[in-house]
Amino acid sequence: MERADAARNRARILEAAAQLFAERLPQDVTMDDIAKKAGVGRGTLYRRYPDRASIAVALLDEHERALQERLLRGDPPLGPGAPPAERLAAFYAAMVRLLEDHRHLVLGSEVGRSRFETGAYGFWRAHVRALLVAARTPDPDALVDVLLAPLAPEVYGYQRSVLGLAPEQITRALAELTATLRSGPS
Amino acid sequence: MERADAARNRARILEAAAQLFAERLPQDVTMDDIAKKAGVGRGTLYRRYPDRASIAVALLDEHERALQERLLRGDPPLGPGAPPAERLAAFYAAMVRLLEDHRHLVLGSEVGRSRFETGAYGFWRAHVRALLVAARTPDPDALVDVLLAPLAPEVYGYQRSVLGLAPEQITRALAELTATLRSGPS
DNA sequence: CCTTGAAGTGGACACGCTGTCCATTTCAAT
DNA sequence: ATTGAAATGGACAGCGTGTCCACTTCAAGG
């Protein structure tokens, strides 16, 4: 069980980190900033979260879980039941939504480590790979990361912030990629 | 004009950096390492190259120029003349080749800054965008970065090093994406 | 060949961030 | 109230960065 002071500090840390991530670029938020803002010592911070990424992951966790749950057991086309190409399109749309709602957190969760090492990536990968297999795509293992690449937070951030594209435009462009599945084995 | 000692040191720096990038992960190569190995002071190094990325870019420059030249004026399908979908496939194949041959350099060229800021990305972007326009794809601006995303060095590195995929597999998977162009406006 | 000043050099320095360590404090179970 | 295990927080060492400037080297002109 978690001690009272521990729980209090955990909450403080997460709240402080959320604020800082919202107002600054993730790489400009230092562990010291977070500790200071949370009113907590360095050691306390490091005890739970070894780096920025793990804090962002903690903040993002519930949102990602919710989507993972819907992918596994939700209604079609996001959940099981629809044809693979449509499920992929629905997945893209949902991910764009997730990226849009938590852009800075997602960016923060990848500072330092590469996105492939995170648990979430493994889940998205397994999901899309299953869709590829269901669609009888040749060599799903090679295609899956290719199809996930456009969802990298930096790509999305570039499209939104620098190019000024609307989320719907991006979703539509991603939908074009599902032609890959629709056209069947080549 | 460049002074003799300046030219000598420039050569030393590039050679030292090339060796270090080859034997170590780019983020583990420090400016100090490069200066030390080149037998040059910190100040001298920073005078020409403000960061690691600019050194990697310098090393990569001629290879990227060569491909850019072939895209503009080479034979089809890489150069002008072939249908857009085939030119895109050829571009993918050439990029895989470039990534394979200079993987560590490409990775090094993106340490710190995001890949979208490099001059090279702008060129690849313009090229693919022109192909999309030629194929009468709706909203080329949204699709172009999506199609370039799988060529991010981290993605390629992950597929090669962690998953153990062969370059040909990756090229083939990328070729599937060109279905997006072949299927015509939706 | 010598002078000259501009270009180039290199290493010391200050700074900021990271991650660890441990003496002290706080908690909750008895 | 006691107690020891858990938690805390700030000091500390280490490392990499980027800057600064006294010194050196170059090459052009007399």
Explain this structure to me?
2 copies of one chain form a homodimer. Chain A is mostly helical. The first copy, chain A, has helices at residues 4-23, 31-38, 42-48, 52-73, 84-101, 103-108, 119-134, 140-148, 153-162, 167-177, 179-182. Chain A starts with a helix and ends with a helix. The A-B interface holds A 114-116, 137, 139, 141-143, 145-146, 149-150, 152, 154-155, 158-159, 162-163, 165, 169-170, 172-174, 176-177, 179-180, 182-183, 186 and B 114-116, 137, 139, 141-143, 145-146, 149-150, 152, 154-155, 158-159, 162-163, 165, 169-170, 172-174, 176-177, 179-180, 182-183, 186. Chain A binds a DNA duplex (30 and 30 nucleotides) through residues 3-6, 9, 30-32, 35, 40-47, 50-51.
- Order of SSEs of chain A: HHHHHHHHHHH
Q: On the 0-100 scale, what is the average pLDDT of chain A?
A: 94
Major beta-sheet overview of chain A: none
Oligomer: homodimer
| Largest interface, Cβ cutoff 8 Å | A-B, 32 and 32 residues
- Determine the fraction of residues in helical runs of chain A and give it as a percent range: over 70%
Query: Number of DSSP helices of chain A?
Result: 11
Runs of chain A in which pLDDT lies below 50 for 5 or more consecutive residues are none
What percent of residues of chain A are in strands?
under 5%
Structural class of chain A: mainly alpha
Calculate the terminal CA-CA distance of chain A, rounded to whole Å: 56 Å
Shape of chain A: elongated
